[in-house]
Design a protein that fits this description.
Blueprint: E1 2-13, E2 16-28, E3 33-37, H1 44-51, E4 59-64, E5 67-68, H2 74-84, E6 85-88, H3 100-106, H4 115-128, H5 144-157, E7 162-166, H6 174-191, E8 194-198, H7 202-207, E9 210-215, E10 218-223, H8 239-249
Helix pairs in contact: 3-4, 3-5, 4-5, 5-6
The protein binds adenosine-5'-triphosphate (ATP) and magnesium ion (MG).
Biased composition (Pro residues): 230-239
GO molecular function: ATP binding; ATP hydrolysis activity; transmembrane transporter activity
Region (Disordered): 217-268
Amino acid sequence: MYELTGVTKRYRRGKATVNALDGVSLTVPTGDRLVIKGPTGGGKSTLLQLLGGLDRATSGSVVLDGTDLSRLSEAKLTRLRAERIGFVFQGFHLIPTLSARENVETALVPLGLRTAERRRRAAEALESVGLAERAGHLPDELSGGQQQRVAIARALAKRPQVLLADEPTGNLDESTRDEVMEVLESRWRELGLTFVLVTHDSSLARRADRVATLSGGRISLTERTRGPAGPAPAPPGPPAEAASGDAGQLPAGDVPSDDVPSGGVPSA
Ligand SMILES: Nc1ncnc2c1ncn2[C@@H]1O[C@H](COP(=O)(O)OP(=O)(O)OP(=O)(O)O)[C@@H](O)[C@H]1O
Ligand SMILES: [Mg+2]
């Protein structure tokens, strides 16, 4: 579980100061999904970097399961990232000279696993995103959606607790977007990950139970109770099955809004 309290992030550019985050307080329970949207420059990527321990807050605390990330040494932070946090970015960041399997395996090197175990986990992760058949392909022998699925496999092969995705479908066309979102959603549900997703995909934002909007470094949170709010937003995949499947997994009224005492308070 993440607990953020009064988090600010200031960047200094010459004499000017940018308040990228301005007093963000937020709770993300273990296993929950939080969707973050908001205008460009609103602070979304900055927040994700703090959640992932890629950067440190200027003030306030970012606590993951009792550990304040801003107080960890660089070495401990690196270890925590390697073991517990999976990242997926808009650009897939695959190494062009390595096969899909090798790209996934590289993420496991910091864990000190034996070669055979790395192989096994990489194969398993690629299979879980539907790419077992493509393990030997180089990135440029794969479609955009497939490349992003390799990146998802790379993020998950370490078996993280947390998955952070920053506009993971931003570079993809519409049909591929749905394919990648479906993979992310199914992995999130099956693995019980704490999942924080930055996206401009408004149909996804409409379906999510908790949506945070970051604008000018300030956060506001919307809890969603599922009601008969007009026509159902188009879910990915074949309309009929996907719609019923989605409704089945997220029954009305089964929204954990009571579990998030501090998240709903817009930051001061
Ligand atoms: N390294 C940096 N140095 C200086 N300013 C920065 C730095 N990184 C981000 N900023 C500034 O912080 C603010 C928030 O940036 P951030 O990248 O978090 O926005 P974002 O919501 O992810 O935007 P986008 O939707 O365009 O990706 C912006 O004003 C940006 O210019
Ligand atoms: Mg961004």
